[in-house]
Predict the structure.
Amino acid sequence: MKSLAIVVRQDGYDNLLTPLAFGYLQGAEGTQVDMLFVNWAVKALTEEGAKGQVIQGEHADQDAWVRTQVEKAGLPADIYDLIQALKSTGNVNFYACSLAANIFGVNENNLIPEASGIVGASWFLNEKAAKADHCQYF
Amino acid sequence: MSDIKANSKLDTSGKCCPMPIVETNKAMKKISSGEVLEIIATDPGTLTDIPSWCERTGHTLMESGNCEGGFQFYVKKG
């Protein structure tokens, strides 16, 4: 696989783990990975939002335990640290969907420097998702 | 115990997907073509991930098997 596009729409610590782990795997292998964050997940592309991710709903009381397990597995337990680890592969790009950014309060001032920018969904779908060898939605 | 002499060793014991593959990629960048990396792992996912990674990336899985408490792989860099 030469390229992978991932659309992330669900926020929450546990919901972000799988797309980030997949992106990390492929980025480390040399695959070009492009990740678009939409809906609530766009907030993970701000420092405050990334650090504030918690497990929600019925598993909320297991947040601390999951973080310990993640750390034991060798991954950074903090979502922002994990984003930085993906970025360090040199093969992963993070994009914020412009509609989601507008709705959920993400802008150029609070966007993390690891993100490549706020982009239109049409551009991502046509230039990244449609041209990628594989596309995933989380 | 294998007779293969490794040039470098990576111990991923205790770590789980994606870290064994992430760290294997990093370790392979540090050795030269023809050299051998020994990988120790405890994640059962590596039993499928490492052979398939070798096929995709042009490296050769010379030998694999169980070792004390986990799995052992010898990979020659392509």
Notes: The first strand of chain A starts at residue 3 and ends at 8. Residues 6 and 136 of chain A are 5 Å apart (CA to CA). The helical segments of chain A are 13-29, 47-51, 63-72, 79-87, 98-104, 121-129.
